[in-house]
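Q: Structure tokens for this one, please.
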Amino acid sequence: MVEIKTDGELDAMREAGRVVAQALAAVEEAAAPGVSLRELDEVARGVLAGAGATSPFLGYQPGFAPIPFPAVICASVNDAVQHGIPTDHRLRDGDLLSVDCGARLDGWTGDAATTFPVGPPRPEDARLVADTRAALEAGIAAATVGHRIGDISHAVGSAARRGGYGVPEDFGGHGIGRRMHEDPHIPNRGRPGRGFALRPGLALAIEPMFLAGGSDACWTGEDGWTMYTADGSRAAHIEHTIAVTEEGPRLLTVL
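A: Here is the predicted structure, written as tokens:
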């Protein structure tokens, strides 16, 4: 069931989203060669605790997962697309890191992700990140009253195909509110004019995932969580929580 939020409820989600943005900024600032993914998770935990927020990631166990998720961020390196479990793996100069983070504050949830290089970026990584971010911006721009979910999907998917990128099947954005994952599902490719009609008060997490090699194929690692590109190419994952309003899309996961 799709839930429509009041202005006051969206304001509460904005506060949760602000915590997410703070955590992502702190993790990016701390990320450097020699820093472990587990240490970055500790950075995010500190931000959440300092804001009086909890993590919707920690302990989350969907049907596909063999274990509850053990961290407050997903940390996915290079050919890992998403759902990477923070381990003692230490970052190296030239890595490409995707970080996904959520926060629950006063009963409301925010969810966002970013991808960035560790050290000076390789030109192809810079292009991948820039194109993924541009696709997110196009998806957000399509999230207006009178459009449909398919318009968001088409904006993201068209950007992927123009750039020659792969897009994982069955993964995409989602509704969000009191729970991290709510209806409707937002595929990262689709036909315009199709799907649920966008209405004021609808809160959505839009999250392009682009695979540099051009193939859509992925596989899941031995931990049962981490999703990798099948061809070993690098991936980017960038996400914001937004609200559909009469005045246009409202970003909720920014500082």
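A few notes: Residues 7-30 form the longest helix (24 residues). The chain has a mean pLDDT of 98.
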